[in-house]
Amino acid sequence: MLLKDISFIIPVFNRPDEINELLKSFSELEGDKDFEILIVEDGSNQRCEYIIENFSNLNITYFFKKNSGPGDSRNFGMNVAKGKYFIILDSDIILPQDYNKILMKNLNQNFSDCFGGVDDSHHSFNYFQKAVSHSMTSFITTGHIRGGNKSKDFQPRSFNMGISKEGFLRSKGFGKIHPGEDPDLSIRLKKLGFSIKLYSDLKVFHKRRISVLSFFNQVCKFGIARSILNNRYPETKKIVYWFPLFFSSVFLLSIFLFLFNISNLILIIYLIYFSLILIQSSFKNNLLVGLLSIMTTLIQFVGYGYGFFKSFILINIFPNKKIESIFPKMFFNQK
Q1: Structural domain span for residue 314
Q2: pLDDT per residue over 96-138, tens digit each?
Q3: Which residue from 35, 38, 107, 158 lies 20 to 30 Å from 314 (Cα-Cα)?
Q4: Which residues have C-beta within 8 Å of that of residue 242, sequence separation ≥ 6?
Q5: Which residues, 6 or more positions from 243, have their beta carbon under 8 angstroms from its beta carbon?
Q6: Are residues 200 and 280 in the same domain?
Q7: In a domain, 229, yes or no
């Protein structure tokens, strides 16, 4: 496979500054730039078309369409792309200079119809962004489920994901659910017999422009989406998806036991765990990021656990009701 066979698909919604940073990283990639970039503006009020004019050295095609969500915008891009293999990126991504070199090495030596890469924080990110990145990618917080798990059930995420043209055509691409459209697609691809792999050396810097509240809401939606997918695909159910709820519940119990002088053993175990997060994140970043990483890890577990449990309960209380009507904000209406 050659670099000219690659089409990068990037949906964007009101993020011109992010597109500017992403395209700047594209222009700084090592080697040839014989690839296609498709920017799909998803009904934005703050359009990024003027940004693209500053990158005449790149082969960029710009589209503007009615808002229908990131999944449908990616499908739109893949339908009009000229390449044989599609790379899906989020707009809040910065590419390392060797991205294409590592990408082509993997595709030519370890081809997969669908792959997922990993994400990390960039030195330019603020402290909170670095803490969120640590919580979402560290082995001791997520077990590398998002960015390092080599298990056979690995499910790529659309911030750094690839899919062959054949895989897209047969699967019909991303569905209406959001978030959760990326694991939904990978599950369907696996059921169709396509290969799915982790490219653990293919890294992007994921900026995640979020606040404490928006991060909680985001991971809460992740939990809701996972319960919906478990209902849709029962064979994907795993006990591990209950862990954030278990972690959060036992943590609250440990505080209760401590306050009422019943026992402090469980709380001590949690303090040891939080200390490990502090040490690991501080060693990689700095002490303040380490402290923030404790907070973001708690937000991640509590938010995901709450969303997962809420979704599980509502789906089972109303078994005959369409999930789209129970969680209307989790689905886009696509044409």
Answers
A1: 234-330
A2: 999 999 999 999 999 999 999 999 999 999 999 999 999 999 9
A3: 158
A4: 308
A5: none
A6: no
A7: no
